[in-house]
Structure formats: C-alpha cells, structure tokens
Amino acid sequence: MKRSDDLPLTIRPVVGMDDHYPAGHVDAFHSHARSQLCYAVTGVMSAVTDSSTFVLPPNRAIWIPAGTRHQVSCRGPVALNVLYVDPEIAGQAGHCRVFDVSLLLRALIQEVLTFAHAYDEEGREGRIVALLLEEIGRMPDIALSAPTPEDRRLRRVCDMIIADPADQRDLDDFAKIAGMGRRTFTRAFRQQTGMGFAMWRQQVRLMAAISLLGEGRSITNIAYDVGYESASSFTAMFHRVLGVPPSHYQRQHSAA
What we know:
Elements: E1 14-21, E2 26-30, E3 35-42, E4 45-49, E5 52-56, E6 60-64, E7 70-74, E8 78-85, H1 87-90, E9 97-100, H2 103-112, H3 124-138, E10 145-147, H4 152-163, H5 171-177, H6 182-193, H7 197-213, H8 219-225, H9 231-242, H10 246-255
Antiparallel strand pairs: 1-8, 2-7, 3-6, 3-8, 4-5, 4-7, 5-10, 6-9
C-alpha cells in the first residue's frame, strides 16, 4: 500500500494519492508536516484530534492543518483521495473541518491526482492547483464534529457517551459521574466545548449514526442503537441537522 512517506512531498505545493483502508483499520495518533485534505470516495472514516472528534462520510472531505495530531479509524473499508498541501501556500482554516465537496471540487481533486509529481507550476497544472485551493476555502462546513473538553472529569463523561451513544442517563446522572453539581457541570461543559450538553450528545449520536449507515444497517435499528426511541424521531433530528433524511446517506453509500 502506498503511504505518504513514499511521496516526494516537497517537490510541489500540492502532492496527492489514492488511499485505501481495510475494515477495522486504526492509524494511531500522528501528524504531518503538510496540511492534509482527505476526500472520502467510499466508506465512512472517523478522525480524532486532541480537541475534537469528526466523522467523514462519502462525498465529503476533511481538512487537517499541518502539525495537527490525529488518529484515524474505519469501521468498514474506506477509499480516499488524499492531498498534501504546503502550509505556506494553503491559505485555509487553521483548524480541522469537515465540508461538502462540490462537483467542481471533486473533479479538481481527481484531476490533480493524475498529475506527475513534478508538474508544471506555471502552466495548466499550476492553474488547476490554484483553483483547487480557492474552491476548498469556499466549501461550507457541515456539523459532523464534537469538541472534546480539557477537564478530565468532563472528558470521562464524553468518553462514556462516545463509547455508548445510546446511554440513556440524563444530565444529572452525568454531573454526578463528573463529581459536579448540575449547574457547575452545565456551565463548565458549555465553556469548554462551546455548546450545551444536549447538543453535544446529539452530535455524537449523529456521527455514530452516519458510521452505521455506511455499514448498510436499517434506519430503525440505527435509531435504537444511537439512543432514539423511534425511527421517526431519529429521522427528524437527522433531517433537521443535515438537511437530508438518513436514507440519503444510505443511497450515497450504495451508489459509491
């Protein structure tokens, strides 16, 4: 399997490759000297940094800035297009983000992968790379991440929910687990994650659901597996947050 270490990463501002991960693959915490764009062709991938957890479904991309420690895991097989971008010319966000990929950006990514590593920076290839970088910056973010609090007591609660999104314990129960009063827990959680506890747990359930949809599980079973009492309530949440029903993600995965 080709890895980033095999690429002449410094030869041009953007260098890319196709990559594949088998089911169950875990790439332990590491970082790259270059910024990284991963576009998911098929399969669902999870990425964890020191500050957040992300999920990457098909036809979306994640931007990982240079030097960011991250761990990648895959429940099922995943196919990716990967670009390594010189941080000096990237001109992109300094934080990780998952975003939609337009038809134009998808075509640009795949065209860059056909270039020789030592492509002509002053010719057609260089102009395509410049347009690619511009288009990345234009793509809208999508809500497929959950921030990780620094406080170890809050982090313990978050780890429990990530491990079992269907856990039905309420805010008071988790505040006790953290050794905090309800108000202190609520205030600290919002301060450290930028969102309320209920919204954070919804994000975790949404990300878990997308991973399960990538495995072809039924929507009803997924709804129960991530903590919803009915398929209809789960579908309503999914549509409200992402603007499409969960069946949309199933169709994308089946067509990929």
